[in-house]
Write a structure and sequence with these properties.
The protein is mostly helical. It has helices at 2-29, 36-52, 59-79, 84-104, 108-132, 135-143, 145-149, 184-202, 208-220, 223-240, 243-263, 265-280, 289-302, 324-354, 361-373, 382-386, 399-403, 406-409.
Length: 426
Amino acid sequence: MQNNLLLQKKTENSFLNHFLLYLLMGVSSMPILFGNEYLIVGFFLSMLIFIGKGKRFDRVIVSYNLVFLALFGLHVLAYDKFILSIIVAYFMRIYFAYFTVKIIGSQIDRYIVNQIYFFSVISLIVTGLIFANPGLADYIFANITPWFDKITIFQPNRQHFIIYTMELGWKVEIPRNSGPFWEPGGFSVFLFIALTFNIVRNKKFFNKKNIIFLIAILTTQSTTAYLAFFIFICIYILISYRSIYSFILMPLLIFIFLNLYSRLDFMEEKVNKMYSDSKKAGTEKVYSRIVSGQINLNNFFSSPIFGIGRFFQVSDEENTGNNGTTLLLAEFGLVGFSYYFLMMFLSYRAYCRKHKFNTLFPFAILAGMLVLGYSQGLFQKPFFMALCFMFLVRFDNHTFWAKEPIRRRVPLLRSQGKLVENLEQA
């Protein structure tokens, strides 16, 4: 009887963890869950569960809040502009991410890998069927996606049926794989994250799940994903193999990538078009990652230390949201940008240490993330904020991390406090 109750509780916890993670990813990236309504639901639901489970706040979350609250305050003083809803929404994202990480606990990597693996398999089946039978796409557009449009609160011009978002691609006859996410490039980000977790967890590059992730990345036909993966592989080789192997493999990888770049239409032609669009910026209405980056960098250079904040208004001819990496720089400057990625680095380093994996590996991951962020508005979304809090679930077994005061982990938190005997195991 007791075993049955334990099994039932474990099943309930597993379902709850999967649901919260799906909601976190969905609010960040899936058309069916776009909209502030779902953010509010996710925030209050995760908060109630956090309190109900008797979880306690870490002082690190106080530090994180103070850094960004101080930056918001500086922006209000500097630009004489205050929009309460923007501040509230931003901190709701932070806490939704934090609560979810603390509730799921040290197995959050496993939940991420398993969910992305599930969506990868489904997406490969659907993409394969559409490729084999092009008429299927017309049928889905005419008879299936309209039903889901009715239950989609915010429609970012993405037709979907919850588990798959339709994308006909650079050439219509070759479908691009978006999975359930907003576009193929967005799907590639989650595939990259799941792949890196699984490499560390299993201590090898190739296994069944990783092969599925790699195939799914190929089917996204995302230029930025290919570039990010190329950079990630190069750094991975440099930190994982002896110099002689790196000397042999690196030129080979560069040759393969350049050959693919020149042969695949969606790479060279697409980049050339974006570059051409960037030359039209200021004279025509354009929507390009390069143009977004230019606008964001101009804003960043106007206030490089603290940024210009999230209150600024852009004209209808400008679009800054396509480039998440430069947008984070523009909004919060070097202070916010550096602090954000310091937290993410600490999480990945703790994760690698726990699994006794190369502790230089986080540099390869962050390099890939920064490239992926160049084409996607990632770092303002709660799922990616959650990657900054993973080290709070005690991935790391080292005495230094378990016993030292939290203020030693995060230099920006200066308040005195007693030693943390142990971070609670979620």
